[in-house]
């Protein structure tokens, strides 16, 4: 009798584990998917980026090579999904404005989403006259970009974050060792990127050019994209060549990648590194300066990734809770 | 050698002007080693930013007094200033931190130059007092919220000119290279006479401060000042005055009448006080040219903050992101400003003001155009609130005074909430707002 009960409990537990595991498998095959924003008709798409190794950085003989792109070294990365597109204003504005989010949601906001710390309303027009619908959100700080990921996490229960610099370059290269993911012929850029020669000095709607071989649009050009990394010299250290990440308490400089709508061809190279600059906030007339906005960086945007291996709850909180120093 | 000669020349000029002028310049800084003492009146984010910019001019400046109605705002401003510039530059002991509605008078006495960055409703009284006390001034826009205030500012402006007191107003587009370059060419006739234009400040709106149980009505309105006309004047003044000022600058004159439409459509909660969330105003100038001024606080809608003009020979476009471009009538580009590495206009305002002050020069009298551009915005508000055509002359002569009869924590502003906390809102066709 007692034994039977134990057996039943064990069997029940077994079924439960199978059910949960099956459920997990069902919703998380490592395939492309659309992430819906609950209770709205908005979504964004993600594609799987397989685990693998690549050579990060560029050789000195590459046209346009900069010293900070060396030394080249072999990097090993775990698998992750990456946003097919740069984050649009359509999505970012829901995070920016709670009233707007409430306005287009079919259900009340959860307690956590309701209480979330959101960007200060910018005094200036942060679209810089370039428009909103299907256009990349621009001008956010790295902190603002990370807090957008927190909002997504609270909305969806799925941990999204900024790519590390290595993840970004790996995904952008999509297997290429050359200047661009399509080779080294700068004449082909017009097929793949919004840049100085075809942008008319404004951002374009996302996905207006062909994607890279891994299905990522606008990796080069349109807007520069935030990484989560601090801008530091590359070091070929075998201890740091697996899932490298550089974190600092300093506010500047942080790494952005990919060039933008006013970049020249050489600045669109997959290995090209950009560093955030306090001058992007000089037009903020207030003190302390906003921790959310760069009024002189209309070329800065973002794209999210989702690691296949989900970090622990405490790691997730540590990632979102990091508050940057006040900016004067 | 050159510098030496310039120094002597400057000193001679000052001596000369002192002899000729019944008023003595408050202080001459021609030697360059005298400290320029500044006082901050209105310790919000913008005031704090202005003090940073004053220090960043590199002149020998010392902050000696601060004033605000709220102790917490003053402390919140003092902390970052002190942290960044230290005790050599920031000499504001407890007895020079002035709190209250009259604090500005005391703080000004300590300084040579005053920075006026309270909500705009207080500006006329503060500016008049600063000039009465012979202070040089940096003040933020708009410079008043009603015509009574504008007349006070214009009167004080006259006095400032007689006393040769420099006044810079924070309409920073006047100090921004793309605007100066582009408008300079327009005024030289590059696109003929300006016959029409469209100037916009359409975006998602600004901050809100919520009422708490312990606040008196006066404190609440001060804390949430953006939404009350006696303090802010409505966003058609507080923000759109920038674009309206560009319109007047380009035209080289002021409109003779305004008509328009406006209301509250998306921003209807009680925390938004009494201001509209959109205004669209047609301004007509003496020469018959017509310019549209539109401002809108709709979150989620398309943003547009810029200025366009059409002339008899071409057209122009400008925005605060360092853009400035001219085309001929066929659309061929005549001029495009290179915005790369342009100076920060907020810094330029202070660089130029303190350069003039430190060399004893009298150079800046921004008050008149700032007051008249503010009045242009007031005229637009009068048009959208009343639904009537409003002339410049009637607007300038208006006796509407939005300021409370008395200022004090238990005094009442003129606009008060009903039992549910909602404020009276202007109704076009019914309301009188002139």
From TrEMBL, chain A:
InterPro entries: CTDL_fold (IPR016187), Sulfatase_Mod_Factor_Kinase (IPR051043), SUMF_dom (IPR005532), SUMF_sf (IPR042095). The lineage of its organism: Bacteria, Pseudomonadati, Bacteroidota, Cytophagia, Cytophagales. Residues 45-278 form the Sulfatase-modifying factor enzyme-like domain. This is Formylglycine-generating enzyme family protein. It comes from Belliella filtrata. Signal peptide: none annotated. It comes from the Bacteria.
Automatic annotation (TrEMBL), chain B:
Transmembrane segments: none annotated. It comes from the Bacteria. InterPro entries: Gfo/Idh/MocA-like_OxRdtase_N, Gfo/Idh/MocA_oxidrdct_glycsds, GFO_IDH_MocA-like_dom, NAD(P)-bd_dom_sf, TAT_signal. Residues 36-162 form the Gfo/Idh/MocA-like oxidoreductase N-terminal domain. It comes from Belliella filtrata. Residues 185-316 form the GFO/IDH/MocA-like oxidoreductase domain. This is Gfo/Idh/MocA family oxidoreductase.
